[in-house]
Specification:
By secondary structure, this protein is an alpha/beta fold. The chain folds into three domains: 154 residues, no CATH class; 278 residues, Alpha-Beta Complex (sialyltransferase cstii, chain A); 139 residues, no CATH class. The chain is 51% helix and 11% strand. It contains 22 helices and 16 strands. Strands 5, 6, 7, 8, 9, 10, 11, 12, 15 and 16 form a ten-stranded parallel β-sheet that branches. Strands 3-2-1-4 form a four-stranded parallel β-sheet. A two-stranded antiparallel ribbon has the order 13-14. Strand 9, helix 13 and strand 10 form a beta-alpha-beta unit. The chain is flat and about 80 Å long.
Length: 606
């Protein structure tokens, strides 16, 4: 006869149950469970010491399984995830602790069993147990002694999902903060996007060329003599922050990369040498773009906005952002076909005197108030980094791992270790140099061949004009849907005042259904997504307020949907106004260009 927990697991998580059924039980040797005299008492004491109280508990191994039922009893809102790859060991432990309470918790989704059959399944169970809609407070169960083997097993099993959460949280926080601003800046940049060139024009044009990517880390100072000596044997790409610093050293890059949409990047280009092109994201601050003489526009892979943009202006070329412009510059070099791609100044850590950039002044030590992480160093056992740069290390590692065809080399005297990149010292730069190359001349020729194509302007104007009535109709439908939600809220709060309320509710839902379908399928949502990041996040993940807690789940749900429909309507109105303004500018510029410069490349005036 099967245990109650296994019967419950079959119903709740068939994949996990199949793992146990595929492997017949083997008689257990030593009892895997620790003997506990008063499990309820020690669990109560442990919870009293946990501040804040966890609502998600991860159990590493099976030695503490006898404490699961008391945890479930004392904290009715708690979810528990058990991690153990030894299927027979896990089965024996669960059989020993089997009870109706464990089975009920499995059926309710409060207790999840992970036998580690795949990293994907582990990630799914972790995310379901954590339930990120309710601000998870995750704690590893450590009431009883946990062996180092069990700790290592739990760490390895959750490695992929922890990395996923870290990357997604970093990317989401950036999009939540800047999404609406990026959308507006992309639209304002449309005239310049049409005037300049797409970065895709450079893709694969430098196959096999050695690239030197210059980042702004403190170790760059030690690399300057070697860069000067071998500069002409590399395609030299630098980040915007370091362009003035290089110029002061007598070094002129072939291409400057800027990937940030914030206004502070204006300072990076105050002294940019004339003629040096800049690879810039489509959402770069227009105040920066308008002062640049040669721009290659690129799409940073982060939002759906490029999906809306491409039919209007053509393919700009996708670049991996990596959370920081240095990884984006490496991505540009790889997209151009370069290999090896050699980095200097790519430290992602503090120097001993507290600096994070070559051009900054010594702080006399690590800044106070920061949270530091010890990470493996290139030539030191460990180096100090902060939370932000810690994320960047992970992004760079991910980028390198996904491009095995490119040889990446980090030349450094310090810095954090980027797994997958070769390590060398600055004095070895010549090893990676190619024959002399006039990369600047080739890039200039490619820019002139594709910048300001007149047909792109006509295509863009038509595409923008076609989208204006789409935004108008979607706005009206969302406003009507918001009104329907209001009616449904009123009905659910006073159902006795309406005859046959079920029929009325169904009619209301039928009216909203087409709008919901359109919000999922209409291509115009690619334009609106960035502006809706905040409200979308609130709809799915916002914590329940005291006011909402007093509402029924149905009222709360329709209230949030009403907020979402209203936000979409507002986004439509805002975006429509921007499009109308841009169309007006483009049409007047096109007329001026055709009258003043017949037969010449169109120069779009702003």
């Amino acid at each position: 006869m099967e245990s109650e927990w296994l019967l419950a697991l079959k119903a709740a998580d068939g994949e996990a149950a199949d793992v146990f059924l595929d492997e017949p039980p083997v008689p257990a040797g030593d009892d895997p469970l620790m003997a506990v005299d008063d499990p309820l008492g020690i669990v109560r004491e442990w919870l009293g010491q946990c501040v804040p109280t966890p609502n998600v508990v991860i159990v590493p191994g099976v030695s503490q399984i006898v404490l699961i039922e008391p945890l479930l009893q004392l904290k009715t809102s708690m979810n528990i995830l058990v991690l153990e790859q030894n299927v027979n060991k896990l089965r024996c432990a669960l059989d020993a602790a089997d009870s109706p309470a464990l089975a009920a918790a499995i059926r309710a989704g409060r207790l999840r069993i992970d036998p580690g059959e795949s990293s994907l399944s582990t990630a799914e169970r972790f995310l379901c147990a954590a339930d990120f809609s309710r601000c998870p407070r995750i704690r590893l169960l450590d009431i009883l002694p946990v062996s180092s083997e069990d700790m290592d097993m739990a760490t390895e099993m959750t490695k992929d999902v922890r990395e996923l959460i870290r990357f997604q949280a970093c990317d989401l926080s950036t999009r939540l903060r800047f999404g609406a601003e990026w959308q507006e800046q992309t639209l304002l940049n449309l005239p310049r996007i049409l005037q300049h060139a797409p970065l895709s024009a450079l893709f694969k044009q430098f196959k096999g060329t050695s690239a030197l990517v210059v980042a702004a880390g403190p170790s760059l100072n030690d690399a300057i003599p070697f860069i000067k000596r071998f500069r002409n044997r590399f395609l030299l790409i630098c980040v915007g922050r370091v362009s003035t610093f290089l110029q002061n050293q007598g070094i002129v890059p072939d291409l400057i990369v800027t990937g940030d949409g914030q206004h502070y990047v204006r300072d990076h280009f105050k002294n940019k040498p004339a003629g040096v092109p800049v690879a810039a994201s489509c959402f770069t601050d227009p105040a920066v773009i308008n002062k640049l003489d040669r721009v290659f526009f690129m799409e940073l892979v982060s939002m759906r906005l490029p999906e809306w943009l491409r039919p209007k202006v053509g393919e700009q070329g996708e670049i991996y952002p990596g959370g920081n412009v240095s990884t984006a510059a490496m991505s540009v070099a790889a997209a151009l076909g370069c290999s090896p791609v050699v980095t200097v100044g790519f430290d992602l850590s503090y120097s001993p005197d507290g600096r994070t950039h070559a051009a900054s002044k010594s702080g006399g030590g690590l800044p106070k108030g920061e949270t530091y992480f010890d990470v493996p160093g290139n030539f030191q056992d460990t180096v100090k980094t902060n939370r932000q740069m810690f994320h960047y290390i992970g992004f760079a590692k991910e980028f390198v791992a996904e491009r095995p065809e490119v040889r990446f080399v980090n030349l450094n005297t310090a810095g954090a270790r980027i797994e997958g990149m070769e390590i060398a010292r600055h004095g070895e730069l010549e090893r990676y140099a190619g024959p002399e190359i006039d990369a600047a001349r080739r890039i200039a020729a490619l820019y002139e061949s594709c910048a300001g194509e007149p047909e792109r302007s006509a295509t863009c104007i038509k595409g923008l004009r076609d989208d204006i009535p789409v935004l108008q109709s979607l706005r009206m439908e969302c406003m009507q849907a918001a009104m329907v939600c209001n009616q449904m809220i009123m009905l659910m709060r006073r159902p006795g005042t309406v005859k046959d309320p079920e029929t009325v509710l169904r009619e209301h839902l039928d009216r909203v259904a087409p709008v919901d379908t359109r919000l999922k399928t209409d291509p115009i949502m690619d334009l609106l997504e960035a502006r809706l990041e905040g409200v979308s996040n609130a709809l799915t993940e916002r914590m329940v307020s005291h006011e909402e807690r007093a509402m029924s789940p149905a009222v709360r749900s329709h209230r949030r949907w009403r907020d979402y429909y209203t936000a979409v309507a507002d986004a439509c109105q805002m975006s429509q106004g921007l499009l109308e303004n841009i169309v007006s500018k483009l049409e007047s510029s096109s007329c001026a260009a055709s009258c003043d410069n017949p037969g010449k490349r169109m120069e779009v005036a702003v």
